[in-house]
Design a protein that fits this description.
Rossmann fold; 11 strands; six-stranded parallel β-sheet
């Protein structure tokens, strides 16, 4: 039986707080709500990194009068960044989430959306990752401080739902990518790092690019505009305590991803694998059945199309910076 959703009036008259709303995912979500759902800019408050959410006082201040709070703000990075910053990754992400959920309770917000991370899954979770296996083991070591901090917020969300009858939902997105991503090689994730390396190599006529790891591990990626749509749909339609995966349902090895990006960029030189660098989790691939069943989300952007859009965005940015 086909499930129908009545969401046309959901956003009407509501005030929305999006923490991290000026960041990568947040800025796409703001554009989605305004462009696709007709919200006015006056309905949305999007915080930036200048508002320190590790302060409960700050969180209480910004939560006042809000009907819906979508918590995206995070201290996050790639494997290298994770290795260098395990303490802040645990403390900052846990503290911000604790504060925002408590602030939402005080503000009597009608709904709270907590965005978690695929990094919370056990290192050797069965493929595809199902939400019920979230507690079946310890996360991959380089991801553990970040992943466990985010997973603890699921426990808090369910506790606050039980004791205070708060409508808190919890979403588990896989690795995101797209225009506006972080391309700083010191802290970026794999796709923006590879795009930057290959675009820069082509522009500089380099004949060799070094890539971390063995290339044998696999990942699943979700285009950022699809992720924004998923969050909007879940906010409108999902009201249950169980966590929900957000993904594309497509898995690719890092070596195949690397070759695909090199081809799309037009790089024809040598690719060198630095096997002294960590691979991270062996595999990542999500079961996205629950998202499809509960709120009708299915990713629509293929990896090749999403990569091309991201490469074009970065290439234009590269040219603009070079001309500045």
């Amino acid at each position: 039986m086909k499930v129908t959703f009545l969401t046309e009036s959901f956003w009407q008259g509501k005030r929305i707080l999006i923490t991290g709303g000026s960041g990568f995912l947040g800025s796409h979500l703001v554009r989605n709500l305004i462009g696709k759902r007709g919200l006015s800019t006056g309905q949305i408050v999007a915080t930036s990194s200048s508002k320190d959410l590790r302060s409960l006082e700050n969180c209480i201040e910004i939560a006042k009068g809000m009907d819906i709070i979508i918590h995206l703000a995070a201290n996050v990075g790639g494997i290298g960044y994770n290795q260098k910053n395990p303490g802040p990754l645990f403390f900052d992400n846990l503290q911000m989430g604790l504060n925002m959920i408590e602030a939402a309770r005080e503000a009597k917000a009608k709904k709270f959306v907590q965005v978690g991370t695929v990094c919370s899954y056990p290192k050797f979770a069965s493929i595809p990752f199902r939400e019920d296996s979230l507690w079946d083991g310890y996360p991959e070591e380089t991801n553990a401080p970040y992943g466990i901090a985010k997973k603890a917020l699921l426990v808090m969300a369910q506790a606050y739902r039980q004791q205070y009858s708060m409508n808190i939902i919890y979403l588990l997105p896989v690795n995101l990518y797209g225009p506006g991503d972080n391309f700083d090689l010191e802290s970026s994730h794999v796709i923006p790092a590879l795009i930057r390396k290959f675009v820069d190599a082509v522009e500089s006529n380099l004949t060799k690019v070094t890539v971390w790891g063995t290339g044998k591990v696999s990942r699943e990626f979700l285009y950022v505009e699809d992720a924004a749509e998923a969050i909007a749909l879940a906010t409108e339609r999902y009201n249950l305590p169980e966590p929900v995966n957000l993904g594309s349902g497509s898995e690719i090895t890092i070596s195949a991803l690397t070759e695909l990006i090199a081809k799309l960029v037009g790089y024809k030189g040598q690719i060198v694998w630095d096997t002294s660098r960590p691979d991270g989790q062996p595999r990542r691939c999500l079961d996205t059945t629950r998202a499809s069943r509960e709120f009708g989300f299915k990713a629509t952007t293929t990896l090749a199309d999403g990569l091309q859009k991201t490469i074009s965005w970065y290439s234009h940015k590269f040219v603009a910076n070079a001309m500045a």
